[in-house]
């Protein structure tokens, strides 16, 4: 039995969603159709499709993601608390490329890595980090509420490497304000780690990943680079 054409299935699905969205806002589907850059990775497409099929998330007609992996929203700002796969701030609508990888990564953590749905949160800035904008894309917690894994999703390998270089520089420097940082784009990731102290920081893109074990010292953080994110059993055993 051959494996499914995961990238082909996801491309077809996204093309259909784009057509639905364009129809709902009275726009023609752009030619030559959906543009996905960078291209989908097979593993990324696989876990997006499996996450959709297993009910971890779905897209509504306007491309908003509906999922109980998001923290429970207040009714008055429901839409502001969801990820939208196609951006409509300009026409024609554009694919939010990082959103595909973000949903796929959350799905992989649950379906392949074995984390419980209740432990995985998308966009934790909504409630876990109200004072830190852009601190983490996904947060994995223990059953007792301890922050175990902070996940940041980037568009490609170059952005992943810039992120970790900036994060390491902030960690070496120690406590400092966003306005006094030479790496303002990625400073919130450092702030998140300094405040919530996740045990691991996992930077992910469709074509790259880098994982650190975060060692917290009195005045600084010492990230230890690993070959990959450890399995759930090891992380939870370590957390006690």
Report on the architecture of this protein:
The chain is α+β, with helices and mostly antiparallel strands and 240 residues long. The chain has two domains: 1-112, no CATH class; 119-240, no CATH class. It has six helices and ten strands; from the N terminus they run ααββββαβββααβββα. It has helices at 6-24, 42-53, 97-111, 157-173, 187-196, 232-239; strands spanning 58-59, 65-66, 86-87, 94-95, 120-122, 138-141, 147-153, 200-205, 208-216, 221-226. The protein has a six-stranded mixed beta sheet with strand order 5-6-7-8-9-10, sandwiched between helices. A two-stranded antiparallel sheet has the order 1-2. A two-stranded antiparallel ribbon has the order 3-4. A hairpin with a 2-residue loop joins strand 8 and strand 9. The longest helix is centred in the N-terminal third of the chain and has 19 residues, at 6-24. It is globular.
Can you give keywords for this protein?
single chain, 240 residues, alpha+beta, 2 domains, 6-stranded mixed beta sheet, two-stranded antiparallel ribbon
Gist?
This protein has 240 residues and is an alpha+beta fold.
Number of strands: 10
Overall pLDDT metric: 88
Order of helices and strands: HHEEEEHEEEHHEEEH
The number of helical elements comes to 6
| Anisotropy-based shape | globular
Helical content class: 25-40%
The order of strands across the largest sheet is: 5-6-7-8-9-10
Sheet having the most strands: 6 strands, mixed
Number of domains: 2
Radius of gyration: 18 Å
Strand % is 15-25%
* Gap between N and C termini: 41 Å
The unreliable regions are 126-130
Q: From the helix content, strand content and strand pairing, which structural class follows? A: alpha+beta
């Amino acid at each position: 039995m051959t494996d499914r054409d995961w990238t082909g299935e996801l491309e077809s699905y996204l093309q259909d969603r784009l057509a639905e969205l364009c129809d709902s806002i009275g726009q023609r589907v752009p030619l030559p159709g959906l543009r996905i850059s960078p291209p989908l990775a097979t593993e990324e497409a696989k876990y997006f499709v499996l996450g959709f099929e297993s009910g971890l998330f779905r897209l509504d007609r306007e491309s908003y993601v509906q999922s109980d992996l998001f923290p429970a929203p207040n009714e008055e700002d429901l839409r502001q608390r969801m990820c939208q796969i196609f951006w409509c701030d300009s026409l024609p609508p554009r694919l939010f490329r990082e959103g595909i990888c973000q949903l796929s990564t959350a799905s992989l953590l649950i379906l392949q890595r074995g984390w419980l749905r209740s432990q995985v949160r998308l966009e934790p800035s909504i409630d876990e980090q109200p004072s830190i904008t852009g601190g983490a894309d996904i947060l994995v917690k223990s059953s007792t509420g301890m922050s175990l894994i902070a996940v940041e999703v980037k568009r490609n390998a170059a952005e992943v490497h810039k992120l970790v270089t900036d994060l390491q520089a902030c960690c070496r420097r120690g406590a400092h304000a966003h306005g006094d940082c030479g790496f303002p784009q990625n400073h919130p990731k450092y702030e998140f780690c300094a405040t919530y102290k996740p045990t691991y920081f996992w930077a992910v893109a469709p074509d790259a990943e880098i994982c650190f074990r975060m060692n917290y010292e009195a005045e600084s953080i010492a990230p230890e680079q690993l070959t990959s994110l450890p399995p759930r059993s090891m992380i939870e055993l370590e957390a006690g």
